[in-house]
Amino acid sequence: PAFPVPSLGPAVRGVTTVRGTLLPLVDLGALLAGRPCAAERGGATVVVQVDGRRLCFEVDDAEEVLRGGGLPVPTGAALPWAAGIARVHEELVPLLDLDALGARITEAAAT
């Protein structure tokens, strides 16, 4: 469950409990698009560490966990939040640049 809290960031849905700890819950799609949270919750959360702090990204679905490095982003690809790509079942999937997302979260909270 998510618990709403006052927030300056429109992509922050609130906080959620993960293994007994309250963590910020960020709608990843809203963060990437620069819009407020969707009315409907995503189907999964992914716990990440950004700038030394843990938080949850709310996502539609999570099917794979990549262990190890990815491939470079192809030249000319429009993937501003990608640090690389991975091949999963013959599909190319962008790997999120957590440093860039952390900067985006910090920037959104400051405005």
Q: What's the helix and strand layout?
A:
Layout: E1 2-3, E2 12-18, E3 21-27, H1 28-33, E4 44-50, E5 53-59, E6 82-88, E7 91-96, H2 98-110
Parallel strand pairs: 3-5
Antiparallel strand pairs: 1-2, 2-3, 4-5, 6-7
User: Biggest sheet: strands, sense, closure?
Assistant: 5 strands, mixed
The radius of gyration is 14 Å
Mean pLDDT: 83
Q: What share of the residues does DSSP label as strand, in percent?
A: 35-45%
Task: Describe this structure as you would to a colleague.
- By secondary structure, this protein is an alpha+beta fold.
- It is 17% helix and 39% strand.
- It has two helices and seven strands.
- The strands form two sheets. It has a five-stranded mixed beta sheet.
- The longest helix has 13 residues.
- It is globular, with a radius of gyration of 14 Å.
- The mean pLDDT is 83.
Short synopsis of the structure:
The protein has 111 residues and is an alpha+beta fold. It contains two helices and seven strands; from the N terminus they run E-E-E-H-E-E-E-E-H.
Entry keywords:
alpha+beta; 7 strands; two-stranded antiparallel ribbon; 111 residues; 2 helices
